[in-house]
TrEMBL record, chains A, B:
Protein name per UniProt: 5'-deoxynucleotidase
Cofactors named for this entry: Mn(2+); Co(2+)
EC number: 3.1.3.89
Biological source species: Vogesella indigofera
Residue ranges of every copy of the HD/PDEase domain listed in the record: 28-146
SUPFAM superfamilies in the cross-refs: HD-domain/PDEase-like (SSF109604)
Keywords linked to the UniProt accession: Hydrolase, Metal-binding
Lineage: Bacteria, Pseudomonadati, Pseudomonadota, Betaproteobacteria, Neisseriales
Subunit comment: Homodimer.
Length: 193, 193
C-alpha cells in the first residue's frame, strides 16, 4: 500500500508542470494534470468519430498516463523543432523512475500504456494522439490564438505539425479544424514564425 | 462535431473550480479538473485492493465525470454538514445542462456514469467513492494537515465522514489510513471542530 501512496503523491507534481496554453478566462497557464483530464474527456466524447473502431477505455487510460514523464522533464510546446530524441529518452527515464515506485503489476500496466502511446502504432494510440494534439488548438481557437501569438507560431506550422496526427486518428475532427484554422488566420491569430 | 467542441470548452471551467486542498509544494488551491485526473490514477493504481472485483474502466470513467456539476455549483468541502440535498439537486441540474450539450448517445453515457457514482450502489461506485474520499486525506497527511487546520476539521469528523465510504470500497486503504490519521492527531494536525 505504501508504494501506491508514494506513487500518487509523486503524481501531485504534475499539477505544477505548466503548459503554454491558458485555461479560458483564467490568467494562469494550464498544467499537465488538468490537461490530462480534459483530453481523456475529449477522447471519450469523440469516440464515435475515431478513424477506426477503438477500445475507448484503453485510449482514456493512455491519455491519463502519457504526460507523467513531464514531472521530471517539464512540458515542451508541440511546435518545438529540436531536441525531440533527447526529450523522448529523458521522458522514458522519467516514467521508468515514476512507475517504478509502484508494485510490479501496476508499473508494468502503466508502462505498457505509456509505450503504446509513444509508439503510436495502434488505432487506440492514433486516436489518443489526435485528442492530445487537438485540445490546445481548440483552446487557442476559443482564445483568439493566445499561445500562437505569445509564442510566434504560424498557421503553416500548426497545420504541418498537428494536421497529420489528427487526420490519422480522427479525420472528422481535422475537417472541422481546417475550416476553423483558416478563419483564425483571417483574424490574424497566428505569429509570423 | 460542434456539439462535442462546445461541451469540451464548457469543461474548461472545471479548471477554475477550487477546492480546499493545496497541491504539495504549491501555494494555490487545487482545482477540480486536476483532482479528477488524480483520483482516476489513484483508483487505477489501487484496483487490486478494491473490496470486490470491479470493472476498473468504469470506475475511472465515473471518476472523470463525477465532479463536472461543480462547474455550476462550485466545490463543497466533504465535511460540510448542511445543505447536501439542495446541493445534490443543483448538481443534477448542472450535469443535465452540461451533458445536454452533447449528442444524445454521449450525454446518456456520461449521465449514467454520473448517476451510478451518486447512487453508490455498485461495487464500482463504492470503489470510486473510496478513491475520491481518500485523495484529499492523503494530501493532507503529506501536508501537515493543511486543509484540516485551515478549516477547523477535527480528527473525529474526518474519521466519521470518510471512514465508512473508504472502508466499504477499499478496506486495505482504510486500515492504512487509520494508523496515519492517529499519527496525524498526535502531531496536532487537526482543528478543534
Amino acid at each position: 500500500m505504501q508504494q501506491i501512496i508514494d506513487f500518487i503523491l509523486e503524481l501531485d507534481k504534475l499539477k505544477g508542470v505548466t503548459r503554454k496554453t491558458r485555461p479560458l478566462g483564467l490568467e494562469r497557464q494550464e498544467n499537465s494534470a488538468e490537461h490530462s483530464w480534459q483530453i481523456a474527456m475529449l477522447a471519450a466524447s469523440l469516440a464515435p468519430y475515431a478513424a477506426e473502431p477503438v477500445d475507448i477505455n484503453r485510449v482514456v487510460a493512455m491519455l491519463l498516463v502519457h504526460d507523467i514523464g513531464e514531472i521530471d522533464t517539464g512540458d515542451t510546446i508541440v511546435y518545438a523543432e529540436d531536441g525531440w530524441e533527447e526529450r523522448k529518452a529523458a521522458e522514458l527515464a522519467a516514467v521508468t523512475r515514476i512507475f517504478g515506485l509502484l508494485p510490479a503489476a501496476q508499473a508494468q500496466r502503466f508502462m505498457s500504456l505509456w509505450q503504446e502511446f509513444e509508439d503510436g502504432e495502434t488505432a487506440e494510440a492514433r486516436f489518443a494522439h489526435a485528442a492530445d494534439r487537438a485540445m490546445p488548438v481548440l483552446l487557442n481557437l476559443a482564445n483568439n490564438g493566445q499561445s500562437w501569438r505569445e509564442n510566434g507560431i504560424s498557421h503553416a506550422r500548426v497545420v504541418q505539425r498537428i494536421g497529420p496526427p489528427i487526420q490519422s486518428g480522427c479525420p472528422a475532427l481535422w475537417d472541422y479544424l481546417v475550416e476553423r484554422l483558416a478563419h483564425a488566420q483571417q483574424q490574424g491569430w497566428f505569429g509570423a514564425d
